[in-house]
Design brief:
Layout (H helix, E strand, L loop, with lengths): L13 H17 L27 E5 L5 E5 L9 E3 L1 H14 L5 E5 L5 H13 L5 E3 L10
Parallel strand pairs: 1-4, 4-5
Antiparallel strand pairs: 1-2, 2-3
């Protein structure tokens, strides 16, 4: 009588573990490359931190080259948001403020920008219905610890 092999009832998981480890290495290598943001060199000024209870404030970021970005939430550091022109900023902000009249409005502007550029953005936001506009700054280096 011939030897008959019984079917193997165990699953070999070693190849699956190998694939998982390769994927883990790929994700670990690419994760730092996925962080995007608007590079804004904020001015240093002592100020109080923004209260945490504010849900998704409207953050307008202005780069040193004058490019304007609109973002909902304090994740402006993590994502660029939507790039807008100075003309369309009023429309975008008006829609957001019209839907949420109590939304907090902040400007993140590069410290190398001219004062008039920041004031122009503030004026557009106030015409769009913002009750008050805050400025986001970095704490001075001596106070950071």
């Amino acid at each position: 009588m011939a030897d008959r092999r019984r079917p193997m009832s165990e699953i070999n998981v070693v190849p699956y573990i190998d694939v998982m480890l390769v994927l883990l290495v790929i994700f670990m290598a690419t994760a730092p490359l996925l962080t995007q943001g608007v590079l804004v060199d904020l001015p240093d000024a002592p100020s109080e931190p923004v209260p945490e209870q504010q849900d998704d404030p409207l953050v307008v970021s202005v780069r040193a080259d004058g490019a304007i970005f609109v973002n909902l939430g304090m994740t402006g550091n993590d994502s660029e948001g939507t790039r807008v022109t100075p003309e369309s900023l009023g429309d975008q902000a008006g829609k957001i403020i019209g839907a949420r009249p109590d939304v907090a409005v902040y400007i993140r502007a590069d410290h190398a920008l001219e004062y008039g550029t920041v004031v122009g953005v503030m004026t557009v936001l106030q015409k769009a219905g913002a009750k008050s506009v805050g400025l986001i700054t970095e704490p001075p280096k001596a106070l950071q610890g």
